[in-house]
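Researcher: Next sequence.
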Amino acid sequence: MIEPGVMPVTTPDGASAELILVPAPAPLPGSPYLFWLPALGVPARHYLPLAQALAGLGVGVALHEWRGLGSSDQRAGRRCDWGYRQLLDDIDGSASAAAAAWPGGRCWVGGHSLGGQFACLVASRAREAPAGILLAASGAPYWRCFAHRHWVRLAYLAAPWLARLVGYLPGRRIGFGGNEARGVISDWAATGLTGRYGGHGIYEDLERSLAAQRAPVLALRMTGDWLVPAASLDFLLGKMPHARAQVDVLAGTQGTDAAHFSWMKQPHEVARRFAKVVADA
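Model: Next structure:
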């Protein structure tokens, strides 16, 4: 078991959280590392089994913490709100800290679910392109990609209304995500309704950046993942037409389906696939 370290990260507006670092044993200069973004509502520490499995295969991992969760000093509420713009600022701070922890290292960026969407945005906005993008159970939330599309569209209309009513989205109570900031839910729902990435206070054209993104992508789709159907993943990858993409489909253990979150309990196959792509690059 590889013991993780932590690095405090503070962003320009004063929010702070800890970046979890899991280095590979005796890393060499220029060794690869993965900057990982969690799913919506999932604290970074839940990805420690994945990070430790990857580190054992020679790939160090930096686990980003979403604002409002885990080690973050912020909590969503009526007096505490943020959106995608602040999340991008937080990610920029964590990415810089990860680069400092692996000087000269080859950076890969990846994520799970919403984290995978943001990983693609990170790659598209980076001054220096990452070596590649690694996705697990991730795809765009565009409502037309889902089998029960009209119910999904209704959820995108209802979620921001509920968040405004309560002061935040009570995800722990309704069984979706964590307790999420109103701004995050507003920006997330807008992407779900329009199929386009953006957000309040974001003035750069994220869609244009994605269209120019060229880093290769490995996307792992889980067989039993109704939250990310194949059309959802295809829609996300379609935003990066110049990026070479490989899609692998993973089943669960003992012939069962791999669901949106169940793979996290036994992440060794995901780690093996990721490490092979990193080693072959």
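Model: The chain has one domain: 5-141+205-280. Residues 84-101 form the longest helix (18 residues).
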